[in-house]
């Protein structure tokens, strides 16, 4: 290899894999931050590994990097506290998530997130830059900053504006230059940030259960409004998404609007309205690493008001029940992924329900 090409390779490797660090185990945080630790262990950050998340495992089992026993490229965001993360994400190093390795099963650990000192924007996916000081943590809270176990820096900009999450949750570009999963968020937010919505204040502290599509979604209800409009011969249901990204982000997810009418004691169910983004290749749905185009996109976008019309007349006394929810895995993909017996993949999650009685 040419000398300058070799140097460039080393620089790019270090930049892409800013991983040569050791982290305090999250369990050690429990004694001082008991409630926060309990919230964290119920979150998808804690359950981010293939061994703890059956949906991630099902996708990873089909991944070509796994099939070729090459590397665990997902480790950059799914096992960032791993002691051998450099090997995990480097082609040909053959390192994979191990249930017996405690650093692997730390998932997205407490120490990892609180040592993110900056985020480097990158076309394919952003890069978290980690502080080299093992026990210096960044926090937005100025309360309880004195600790015998670590120091706290409350002046870190990305902690203050809540954009530390965009290192992993901004976008993911595959080899076909398709943005597989994106929040479409810029570097900063004027109105809301990831933290203000997904980590709201609870009992005097910032919630670390991470409200999202998997769990604690009830904390996000305020960002979606459901309303009904009665016309002379029909009616419509409106869904207003106040968030700064699409209602659901991952292409496996499917949102469903269920509407039923109770008239004179009889219930009439309307056809379900489906909101989905399907990615694919050569005209057919495909896995994220193979997809080259978006085949279909009816997902409710950021700040969009989606109106769904129903060709049914309503009369006084009629009751209209509206439910908005989702499946974490598109029902059409459940069997292909071998998730038929996994409740987390087949259960319909009811997000928000409204009832309207015509007067």
DSSP, total strands? 16
Helix/strand order? HHHHHHHHEEEEHHHEEEEEEEEEEEHE
Shape estimate: globular
Number of domains: 2
Q: What is the gyration radius calculated from CA atoms?
A: 23 Å
Main beta-sheet annotation: 7 strands, antiparallel
Low-confidence stretches: 1-17, 187-191
Overall average residue pLDDT: 91
Number of helices: 12
- DSSP strand (E) fraction? 15-25%
The percent range for helix content is 10-25%
- Give the N-terminus to C-terminus distance in angstroms: 79 Å
Query: What structural class should be given to the helix and strand makeup?
Result: alpha+beta
What does this structure look like?
There is one protein chain. With 359 residues, the chain is of the alpha+beta class. It has helices spanning 3-16, 34-41, 54-62, 64-67, 75-78, 85-89, 102-105, 110-114, 157-160, 166-169, 194-198, 343-346; strands at residues 116-120, 127-130, 136-138, 151-153, 201-202, 205-206, 224-230, 235-241, 254-263, 266-269, 273-281, 284-285, 293-297, 305-310, 319-327, 349-357. It folds into two domains: 3-46 and 108-206, no CATH class; 217-357, Immunoglobulin-like (Sandwich). Strands 9, 10, 11, 12, 13, 15 and 16 form a seven-stranded antiparallel β-sheet that branches. Strands 7-8-14 form a three-stranded antiparallel β-sheet, with no helix packed on it. Strands 1-2 form a two-stranded antiparallel sheet. The model is unreliable at 1-17 and 187-191 (pLDDT under 50).
């Amino acid at each position: 290899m040419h000398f300058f090409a070799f140097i460039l390779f080393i620089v790019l490797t270090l930049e892409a894999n800013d991983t040569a660090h050791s982290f305090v185990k999250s369990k050690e945080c429990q004694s001082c931050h008991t409630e926060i630790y309990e919230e964290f262990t119920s979150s998808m950050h804690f359950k981010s590994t293939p061994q703890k998340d059956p949906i991630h495992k099902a996708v990873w089992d089909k991944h070509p990097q796994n099939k070729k026993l090459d590397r665990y490229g997902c480790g950059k965001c799914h096992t960032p506290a791993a002691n051998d993360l450099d090997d995990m994400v480097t082609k040909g190093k053959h390192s994979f998530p191990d249930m017996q390795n405690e650093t692997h099963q730390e998932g997205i650990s407490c120490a990892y997130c609180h040592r993110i000192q900056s985020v480097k924007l990158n076309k394919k996916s952003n890069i978290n830059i980690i502080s080299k000081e093992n026990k210096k943590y960044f926090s937005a809270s100025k309360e309880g900053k004195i600790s015998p176990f670590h120091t706290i820096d409350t002046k870190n900009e990305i902690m203050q504006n809540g954009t530390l999450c965009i290192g992993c949750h901004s976008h993911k570009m595959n080899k076909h230059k398709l943005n597989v999963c994106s929040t479409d968020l810029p570097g900063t937010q004027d109105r809301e940030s990831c933290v203000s919505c997904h980590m709201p204040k609870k009992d005097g502290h910032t919630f670390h259960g991470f409200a999202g599509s998997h769990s604690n979604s009830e904390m996000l209800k305020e960002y979606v409004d459901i309303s009904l409009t009665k016309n002379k011969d029909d009616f419509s249901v409106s869904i207003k998404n106040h968030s700064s990204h699409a209602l659901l982000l991952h292409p496996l997810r499917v949102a469903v609007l269920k509407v039923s009418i109770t008239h004179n004691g009889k219930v009439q169910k309307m056809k379900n309205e489906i909101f989905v983004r399907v990615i694919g290749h050569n005209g057919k749905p495909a896995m994220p690493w193979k997809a080259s185009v978006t085949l279909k996109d009816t997902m409710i976008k950021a700040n969009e008001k989606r109106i769904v019309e129903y060709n049914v007349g309503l009369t006084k006394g009629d009751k209209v029940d509206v439910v908005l929810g989702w499946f974490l895995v598109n029902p059409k993909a459940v069997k292909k992924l071998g998730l038929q017996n996994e409740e987390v993949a087949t259960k319909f999650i009811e997000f928000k329900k409204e009832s309207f009685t015509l007067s």
